[in-house]
Model the fold of this input.
Amino acid sequence: MHRMARRAETIDLAVLGLLHEGPMHGYELRKRLNLMLGWGRVLSYGTLYPTLKRLLRAGLIEESPGSPTAVTGRPKIVYTVTDAGHEEFERLMSEAGPTAWEDDNFDIRFAFFSRTDMEIRLRVLEGRRMRLQERLDRVQRELSMTQAEVDRYAAELQRHGVESVEREVRWISDLIRAERGEGDPGSGPEPAPQPSGPA
Amino acid sequence: MHRMARRAETIDLAVLGLLHEGPMHGYELRKRLNLMLGWGRVLSYGTLYPTLKRLLRAGLIEESPGSPTAVTGRPKIVYTVTDAGHEEFERLMSEAGPTAWEDDNFDIRFAFFSRTDMEIRLRVLEGRRMRLQERLDRVQRELSMTQAEVDRYAAELQRHGVESVEREVRWISDLIRAERGEGDPGSGPEPAPQPSGPA
DNA sequence: GTTAGCATGTAAGGAGTTACATGATTTT
DNA sequence: AAAATCATGTAACTCCTTACATGCTAAC
Done:
């Protein structure tokens, strides 16, 4: 009972998901990851390479020596996802963890939505919306309880925060609507008819 | 050259800032902090109490025994900010650190804007706007370089991200305008005529 | 030929969380 | 009197970053 779902699973998910596009080596993976995680932080080698080793030991990915040009000490190691890795990917995509875990992983899950079915997509989206709404309610409750003189700037920060979350909720709601009524794209994302060829 | 500005300074700033409102003990501080940091994470005792000890050793805060009702082992310890603590607060409010540092601390600094002068406020706001714009430019550059088939959902996530940051930039711009032209509140925060009674 | 970028790793340390440990005070 | 909440702390552990260490390959 002392070892619940590690948070490192975010990186696992990202790596496994990216490797679905085809074999890749660490350096390339890192670049893609940094684009994907994007807004801010970059992933360091000190995290990536140990993670790859761990996934390897767990049998979720396999390493294959790259081109035979690399006869030196360390050849360019190319990783592929295994069947077990694919299963783990699907588990992580659909898993319902604690609030913080799901919040941390929402973006990365969303980015891989094409590789899941609609049922999962709706579950993830609705879970996200519910949590955002709960936070909104909590903050608004706390605000109404605090009748202490609110600082002008602190109040503005709160207002902006609430507005941002409300906007996020509307975004999610649009996405849910688009998922459900496929073919009725009022203002959602493009229909994009191609069914995504595998690899 | 191996010990640049610690990131823990965020909590230092928050604690020092809150103690300006009057003496407080740890438990109360934590509640206020959690309201303030708000959207998500809560601060744990395992961080707060060691932080208080550290600030105490550094002479930035002072502890005074609370009411004499507490004759037992651990009395309710009430903390006050010292002169040195006030100086450190002002330093942290105006300090220009690396990008990540300033981004991490923007919210907390903003919340304490009432306790600084306009010069600092403008500097912090303009710094924030500049960094957001830079990120926006970088992402847009990367997007134009990546002509690889973009996944439908990944693209939507990007679009939403860009939109959010653009909105943030507009918010900051409004605030800057409001700061500069005090008395010309087009659509900025409320004028709020009361000068905030101390405690 | 030397700089810049590709490529893979390890060691040390920072920052914070969880879980544990303890006891006082207030509410039910 | 039991339960909840106030209140203070410590130890172990996790995750990640920084800095170091190494060498190949392409561009200038």
